[in-house]
């Protein structure tokens, strides 16, 4: 039986109660965290229901990290058209076909170009974020900071030189072409150092002095900078972004639904590419006039998305929310650090556990859910009386033991909602949400299409309310 729901737009459906009633997130601006081991339904029960819930809100842009062979984009293309949404895919490897009508080209560094063209004073700050994305700063390794900061200096200076002369060429591939050619890079530094009007004169002179005084370190730092861009040395990413006609800011303002696609086998190697796109989109969103947006960050531990983790405290004020999806909490801690993930958990209004397969995580979650008063009975036999006696004892026991959490049925989950507490409920699958379940395409990764089995009807915003 389908429950027809009329509710405020922009709220994600989280699951179903055991009697079939839908559960929604408490706020339209709430970020969320989903933890699910392999096979836990991260896409089917997490990312897809989120997109289906939010499509009717045409004032909210959607950016989806679709790194598993474009399985999300393939399913929602027709759905977006039916809902009247602008839909695009960034698919440099042509996973869904070179002639796919939804392919668009974006420059991963468009945030820098837009800030420079509009005369913003934060261009150096954005460039610092770009260089820290390309050369990530690990926590607790201050001793070797010099060997990371100096290559970032090369990237920063090269970016400013390109911006000063031809901003259109500021792409990752363009930066690689400049830095990888010793003659081109040396000539660029020499020209800037000799130009008294150049804003990059001091930086160029400083790097040339390093080359003269310590040629070994200069070469090491330059090679490290080139290595950070090696991904963009070859086709198809060497030319990526040069023919871009749209920017991330324009997509956000116009309420697009955009999927960033990659072959599943290359997802971890392409992390910096998708991180640059996410950074540009977030920079555009964290400025006035960009509207509202939701970022669905599937497998967010595969990419250096530190900005998306550390800046979560600002998102709500700028109409931005994120749905973070990971295999386990331990993966996130290894990638970003314990303190950063603790901050992320504090600021995610909703946390969901679809499948727990890690022993430490099961114990941690079991303790967090808490205990309840329990009553146990025992039988006794006295030597003075032949009859049995019954004794009742009170104590405390966990509501969910680690064993029970690791043995949750496939259709059940644990929710934590800020201000409410823990909820044990059913998952909701993409084929249980009408009318969108009837419009979904085939999943190219898993093959075929789930048979529609509607449990909840969400207004699409196109039909008349009865």
TrEMBL record:
It is a multi-pass membrane protein. It is found in: Cell membrane. It holds the Pfam family T4SS-DNA_transf. The keyword DNA repair does not apply. GO terms for cellular component: plasma membrane. Keywords: Cell membrane, Membrane, Transmembrane, Transmembrane helix. The keyword Cell membrane applies. PANTHER family: CONJUGATIVE TRANSFER: DNA TRANSPORT. Belongs to the VirD4/TraG family. This is Type IV secretion system protein VirD4. It comes from Methylorubrum rhodinum.
């Amino acid at each position: 039986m389908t429950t027809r729901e009329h509710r405020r737009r922009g709220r994600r459906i989280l699951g179903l109660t055991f009697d079939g009633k839908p559960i929604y997130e408490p706020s339209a601006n709430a970020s969320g965290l989903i933890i699910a081991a392999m096979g836990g339904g991260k896409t089917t029960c997490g990312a897809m229901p989120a997109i289906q819930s939010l499509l009717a809100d045409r004032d909210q842009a959607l950016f989806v990290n679709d790194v598993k062979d474009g399985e999300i984009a393939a399913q929602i293309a027709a759905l977006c058209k039916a809902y009247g949404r602008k839909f695009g895919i960034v698919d440099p490897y042509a996973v869904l076909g070179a002639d796919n009508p939804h392919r668009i080209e974006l420059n991963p560094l468009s945030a820098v170009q837009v800030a420079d063209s509009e005369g913003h004073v934060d261009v150096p700050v954005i460039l610092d974020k770009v260089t820290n994305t390309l050369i990530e700063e690990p926590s607790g390794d201050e001793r070797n900071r010099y060997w990371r900061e100096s290559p970032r200096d090369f990237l920063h200076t090269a970016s400013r030189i390109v911006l000063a002369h031809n901003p259109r060429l500021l792409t990752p591939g363009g930066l690689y072409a400049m830095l990888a050619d010793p003659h081109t890079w040396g000539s660029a530094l020499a020209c800037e150092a000799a130009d008294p009007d150049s804003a990059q004169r001091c930086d160029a002179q400083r790097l040339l002095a390093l080359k003269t005084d310590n040629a070994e370190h200069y070469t090491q730092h330059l090679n490290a900078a080139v290595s950070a861009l090696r991904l963009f040395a070859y086709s198809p990413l060497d030319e990526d972004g040069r023919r871009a006609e749209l920017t991330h800011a324009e997509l956000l303002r116009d309420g697009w639904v955009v999927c960033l696609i990659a072959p599943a086998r290359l997802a971890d190697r392409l992390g910096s590419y998708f991180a640059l796109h996410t950074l540009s989109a977030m920079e555009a969103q964290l400025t006035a006039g960009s509207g509202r947006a939701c970022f669905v960050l599937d497998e967010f531990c595969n990419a250096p998305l530190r900005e998306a983790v550390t800046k979560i405290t600002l998102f709500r004020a700028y109409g931005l929310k994120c749905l973070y999806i990971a295999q386990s909490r331990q993966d996130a801690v290894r990638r970003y650090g314990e303190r950063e993930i603790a901050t992320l958990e504090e600021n995610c209004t909703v946390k969901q556990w679809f499948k727990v397969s890690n022993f430490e995580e099961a114990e941690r979650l079991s303790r967090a859910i808490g205990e309840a008063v329990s009553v146990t009975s025992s039988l006794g036999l006295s030597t003075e009386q032949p009859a049995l006696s019954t004794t009742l004892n009170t104590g405390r026991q966990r509501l969910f033991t680690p064993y029970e959490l690791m043995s949750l049925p496939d259709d059940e989950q644990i929710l934590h909602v800020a201000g409410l507490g823990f909820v044990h409920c059913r998952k909701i699958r993409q084929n249980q949400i009408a009318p969108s379940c009837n419009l979904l395409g085939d999943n190219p990764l898993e093959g075929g299409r789930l048979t529609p089995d509607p449990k909840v009807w969400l207004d699409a915003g196109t039909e008349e309310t009865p």
